[in-house]
Amino acid sequence: MHKKTLVSTLVAFSLTGLLLGGCGSKSSQKSASDDTKAAKVTKITAVGSTALQPLVEQAAQDYQASNKNVNLTVQGGGSGTGLSQVQQGAVQVGNSDIFAEQSSGIKADKLVDHKVAVVGMAPVVNPSTGVTNVSMAQLRDIFTGKITNWKQVGGKDQKIAVINRAQGSGTRATFEGAVLEGKKAVTSQEQDSNGTVQKLVSSTPGAISYLAFSYVNEKVKALSIDNVKPTDKNVTSNKWTIWSYEHMYTKGQPDKATEGFLKYMSSDKVQGSLVNKLGYISIHDMKVTKNAKNVVTK
Amino acid sequence: MDDIQKKLMSPSKASREDITGRIISYTCIAAIIILVISILYFITSRGVATFTTNHVNLWQFLSGEEWNPGTLNDHGQPQVGALPMIVTSFSVTILAALLATPFAIAVALFMTDIAPKNGAKFLQPVIELLVGIPSVVYGFIGLTVVVPAIRHIFGGTGSGILAGTIVLFVMVLPTITSLAVDALRAVPAYFRSASLALGATRFQTIYKVLLRAAMPRLLTAVIFGMARAFGEALAVQMVIGNAVLMPHNLVTPTATLTSQLTTNIGNTIMGTLPNNALWSLALILLLMSLVFNLIIRYIGKRGEIKS
Amino acid sequence: MTPHQSDRIATQLINLLVGIVVLILLFLLGDIVLSGFPHISWHFLTSPSSSFSAGGGVRDQLFNSLYLLVLTLIISFPLALGSAIYLSEYAGDNWFTGLIRTAIEVLSSLPSVVVGLFGYLLFVIEFHMGFSILSGAIALTFFNLPLLVRSIEGSLHAVPNSQREAGSALGLSNWRTIRGIILPVALPGILTGIILSAGRVFGEAAALIYTAGQSAPLLDYSNWNPTSSSSFLNPMRPAETLAVHIWKVNTEGVTPDAVSISAGASAVLIIVILIFNFGARAIGNQMYKKMTGGK
């Protein structure tokens, strides 16, 4: 008898699997057709930058609480994924750390940029190096491999271990745009997330890298550049030059539901509190603007 | 008369059952074949785009040492040289498997033949537990324990092939051990009895009978361990340093195929060269693991005893 | 050296190696459990996660991990079982069978991010399944199949031929012999396969980021309607598992207590896996005893 039960359980299992699969595709098709009607629940998917994800995710949760007719899904996947998916029309919003213009393979004129926050970045070193301030030229020489020992910039006699960010990541593009002046960075260790970089720098003697402001903690030392401190205030006036926008791209003008959410993102409700809580700088606070070619205007 | 004839000519209940069984299992294998083919096709089609669409020279790709897919070199060629990653992936996988296999087989023997009662009761669940620890956790333990230790002993940053090998050793150990236990358990008891009856010591029985009889499945265990090591990314990425440099020794930062793939794939735009080049890495990985697999199978065939 | 001396030396060597492994195990588990245990509380287990303030829990992630495991097994186990039966009982010993075996094994060395992207492009985008547990479960099936198929096949293969002959002698069909005699005998080996693959489901992160997603919308545990988008049973909702959550707080987490959340979540994960493994073995042994008529 029990052998039969085994088999019938198996059959039941596989049937449920099939059924679930069937139901799944059906229900998703239904929601896809709902998009066009816009009468019932509209589905908005935003993918891309992992750095921006927590902000959008939290904002989406708050927004949905008062707007029941929108169903927001916010996921990571990286800026590249966000840009290519929104370009293909596979998702409604592509989150990105970099300008679409800076990304080869993206037709930037087809995409509409919605800047939702500003993020400042600071060079960070392991506290054992004994350095607190460098000049912009020194910083450039460190990352291009010309300076290899901390004593050359007034620190201890210790080898410099450069930890760069992943090629093509928004953070690296911003840093290199502001610091390297088109020169090529030395081939070195690469990590792709703020958390890992922070842990590596804090544990590796002589290490240098760069982090978004919100990840700078007491275990790593943020450097001043030419005696300018990495603070939000210095970013808003562009005295601190290593910063970038966080973008939410749509393909063409957004539809009504998406537009509503994007409006909410730039409203005071998000910009006034949530943005700061998550370590970003509000776009309303900026006294300057930067374009895709890194030109800053007041 | 007709009734009997009809009864004799029509399939029996048993053979009808058998047909049902065949249909079920054939359907399953067909489904799996479709899955395998679809993913292999997917990777191959994207992986060869580097060479067909972007016209990268295959030999340059395999032998170059500069990896900078976003920029062109002096000759206007994209810098996509995967050699450092191929060498590193190869080294960490082989080293981890070489290191883990003796330990895994020892533990498996301990559970099946030396202390079958307590060994199996406590060790097995704990070892199986290790499979479920997320790679990130292994990565961070590697970052906070293994890397500083290596830095302390050898100097430098501590990241490199050695750190990667140690982390992977721990990660593949449970896979190889569990499968090895099953392999040894599957050796019929009369093999052991016969050998012991001939006056062989336990070690002689293990070495001359058990290991040989279980050889094909032990090799499968090792293959799966290596496959895991080969494909592992998140943990390795943290301890290997992730710098695309030719490894000159075991303690300088370098990068594996998977670590490079995982770090960069989210930042590249689909259809562009940097993205295609990463898929080519996946394709290389696939081909390399195929070669591994065939070599091990070949070795296994030679050592096999027919039962 | 006499055979007895070499026997002693070999035994010592094995004991030494086992000792080293045990030490590594103790260190690892001790490290994870001890550093995580202080952070586990009822509050931690029963409150939703928080994206920036301290005090978030792992309730939804824990449930998602379990739910994903169930869905994955529902999809992959029958497939693997059927295929393993084919490979061990029906397939001839020819190049085609060898090809299938090799292909399945090569599949298991794919980096998870590749499987994740494949799942993303095919299921999430092409089949309009969206970021969902179901997409995640199908992607994970790709990982599970090799290990499951091979370990089930191996354990079916290990069943002595005399058992099959006994079945045939009783006039049973092949299928009935497999179902009634061989599968029950092979059960312990099948269990190993399930437990190992379940471990991978619990621990996988990279493949799920692109398929099941890495955000956990608020769940309504009183909503038992699997088609409603806030129901905890809905397989079409995006879901963040424990392993993905650990990955997320470690890489981009901005909560002030990220370290303790990660440690606590890792310890929770270990305990859950431990319970699952022991449970699966206990149930398996029960079934084994019942089905084989052993003591």
Automatic annotation (TrEMBL), chain A:
Cellular location(s): Cell membrane
InterPro entries: PBP_domain, Phos-bd, Phosphate_ABC_transporter
Span of domain PBP: 36-268
Its membrane topology: Lipid-anchor
Keywords noted in UniProt: Cell membrane, Lipoprotein, Membrane, Palmitate, Phosphate transport, Signal, Transport
Gene3D superfamilies named among the record's database cross-references: Periplasmic binding protein-like II (3.40.190.10)
Family per record: Belongs to the PstS family.
Role description: Involved in the system for phosphate transport across the cytoplasmic membrane. Part of the ABC transporter complex PstSACB involved in phosphate import.
Record text on subunit structure and interactions: The complex is composed of two ATP-binding proteins (PstB), two transmembrane proteins (PstC and PstA) and a solute-binding protein (PstS).
PANTHER family (alphabetical): PERIPLASMIC PHOSPHATE BINDING COMPONENT OF PHOSPHATE ABC TRANSPORTER, PHOSPHATE-BINDING PROTEIN PSTS 1
Protein name: Phosphate-binding protein
Organism of derivation: Secundilactobacillus angelensis
TrEMBL record, chain B:
Membrane-crossing segments per the record: 23-43, 82-110, 122-141, 161-184, 218-240, 277-299
Native organism: Secundilactobacillus angelensis
Membrane protein topology class: Multi-pass membrane protein
Role played: Part of the binding-protein-dependent transport system for phosphate; probably responsible for the translocation of the substrate across the membrane.
Entry-linked InterPro entries: MetI-like, MetI-like_sf, Phosphate_PstC, Phosphate_Transport_Permease
Coiled-coil annotated residue ranges, if any: none
Pfam family, one: BPD_transp_1
ABC transmembrane type-1 domain span: 86-296
UniProt keyword annotations, A-Z: Cell membrane, Membrane, Phosphate transport, Transmembrane, Transmembrane helix, Transport
Protein name: Phosphate transport system permease protein
Compartment annotation: Cell membrane
Family of the protein in this entry: Belongs to the binding-protein-dependent transport system permease family. CysTW subfamily.
UniProtKB/TrEMBL annotation, chain C:
Keywords annotated in UniProt: Cell membrane, Membrane, Transmembrane, Transmembrane helix, Transport
Cited InterPro entries: MetI-like, MetI-like_sf, Phosphate_PstA
Record's subcellular location: Cell membrane
Ranges of residues in domain ABC transmembrane type-1: 62-280
Predominant location category: membrane
Assigned protein family: Belongs to the binding-protein-dependent transport system permease family. CysTW subfamily.
Alphabetical list of Pfam families matching this protein: BPD_transp_1
Keyword set includes Membrane: yes
Residue stretches spanning the membrane: 12-45, 65-87, 99-123, 129-149, 181-202, 258-280
Membrane topology, record value: Multi-pass membrane protein
Source species: Secundilactobacillus angelensis
Record protein name field: Phosphate transport system permease protein PstA
